[in-house]
């Protein structure tokens, strides 16, 4: 047997390994922080495209037939591309590729990811997937308009917008994205499991890392379902197989397909699709826990329960997928099973909400911009979660499934809520990245505009759903059971959506302006305990830790510890170095 | 189990520092890290083939499904060529294991022979699979004529892609050895390559069984699975 190859990561400082040229530093960089920024900029840029698309949809819904450039086909294309970009190319990429990349090595006390080259490759392949997706706007027929769920048979049949090159580019782009995600994901889990610094046990990790860790495992196990369905649909489209295509008469012609099952695609899609909700939600849960704890100067309530809840939610997310398919028709016992599992998953989720509230309770709450967004998230998530409980029941879902109620529900729980956390996280960790604060006044304006604005959009949308206003429709036309006031409401929603969109322009301005002109933050401006704020150089440089890696002595939530001089004790402060208010250290039992 | 024990720790309680640090040493064991990543990759690959299999089993019960064996005129009633391909992949798997053994003994010529054998047998497997595809086409078993044919081409194609990915990593491993002549690194890399090869061999055996079963076998499996 050969000897195990151990590298003392504390001794890795080799000046020659630092990148020196512009290209190696900022373009072909293997530094996790640069890759995180690359991921973030790309994700936000493509997210802005999706935001504009949603604005176009809203223009049509609010003011039907007023805009000649929006026809039924382009409306469906906007819906499809908006959904897919937001869920996959923005949220997944920004939360895991952006924040995962930036925070994992810093929070566990590592110099970088375990496989830096693979990490770099992951970003460039992700960028390729984005370019392939965006290319579909420029091909004949435009991008696919099959809806973000891409259900066959209509997704690949003529008559659906973008059923030629558009759907193919979408499927190929998804396959490329999954390759990129797998490369990144293998890196994240391996780095967390194998490269933690001395003293950083699993249960001393901040909840941000737990969220990212479990979400990555979910992604690794769930994205293959999307890959499998994308490959099979490509075969159906290009080669003419019948994996998902039944015998079909299309536009008067009998097609050569036979015997395939469209429902099978739905099962595969949602076997990916539901865990995807938690791939987005779990990192958000983790990050919001840390933001709340830091800005309430209080340890997170029920840390162990929070970890267990993250794991439980991750496990349960694989056995609830068919609640997205109640209207497809299924055995009643199946419906009962999936309704039950859906209600069960609400238990660990509710536990997390209670723990966030109990962390705030009697905390020293600082209403900073990150904290405002974090508290806003508790509202929007509770709201979206409760309507989720309603839709999880078959009997309620059936009449509401094809209405705006569902759009309102999933935007509150999966759109607005993670975005609120992303904003909280950006405002919170921006000083770590740049050494500067984001502008506070603009930040508060951004928060109130976004928080109140999204409520102005989605609260009335629930009501539209109750009225029976169908989703996915280009225009209502003459519909007896829908009162005219519904259209007024729709116009109001559109105005709110445009205002919320414009408020995001203020945020982008703040981001760019503050990067260069923002108020200097100094080291550890929030007085946080977790390791990413404790680097020798601030903001952290290449290799993160200077000559020696930090050593961890405690968990990440030692805030307001009784009889200790400061109201926080960083994770890397040894018990002997803790400064107490009284001279008699023996009085303090906490840090013996 | 260690992981359950870890999850029960109460990190907020004052405990002796050393008690909680045993898991995290501050040392990066590169071989262990690569091994962890490989295990996760194998899990991903398992999910991919598992999902393909589930869809396949469901489809075996549709009215238009015609199994590829069981009747004299069907191509895999006599699956001799697939047995031959299986033997190639088995030999590749054995030779990569031998290469690792020889690397531990630092026996250069034996290493070279076994690495060449691995490459050769793997390429023979791939070319054998392509030959089967050509034969199926020549006999009129096109990819679209029957769902069983579609699945045969799809699953063997996806399996072959995984093998080709493995070959690329294997080639990199040989190249790195040619450059730095580190036997220790070669051993740890070959260990992981061997694990990947063995795994793909077992996947192939599973696919072999699955794709060449007759209609009665599918009926039994599907009824057990509830399709």
Automatic annotation (TrEMBL), chain A:
Name of the encoding gene: coxN
PROSITE patterns for this protein: COX1 (PS50855), COX1_CUB (PS00077)
InterPro entries: Cyt_c_oxase-like_su1_dom, Cyt_c_oxase-like_su1_sf, Cyt_C_Oxase_1, Cyt_c_Oxase_su1_BS
Signal peptide (from-to): none
Protein's membrane topology: Multi-pass membrane protein
Key words, A-Z: Electron transport, Heme, Iron, Membrane, Metal-binding, Respiratory chain, Transmembrane, Transmembrane helix, Transport
Protein's recorded name: Alternative cytochrome c oxidase subunit 1
Subcellular location: Membrane
Membership in a protein family: Belongs to the heme-copper respiratory oxidase family.
Keyword NADP: no
TrEMBL record, chain B:
Keywords: Membrane, Transmembrane, Transmembrane helix
Positions of transmembrane segments: 37-57, 81-99, 111-130, 150-175, 196-213
Membrane topology reported for the UniProt record: Multi-pass membrane protein
Main location: membrane
Annotated localization: Cell membrane; Membrane
Keyword Transmembrane helix: yes
Pfam families in the cross-refs: COX3 (PF00510)
PROSITE patterns per the UniProt record, alphabetical: COX3 (PS50253)
Location of the Heme-copper oxidase subunit III family profile domain: 1-216
Membership in a protein family: Belongs to the cytochrome c oxidase subunit 3 family.
Protein name, as recorded: Cytochrome-c oxidase
Lineage of the species this protein comes from: Bacteria, Pseudomonadati, Pseudomonadota, Gammaproteobacteria, Alteromonadales
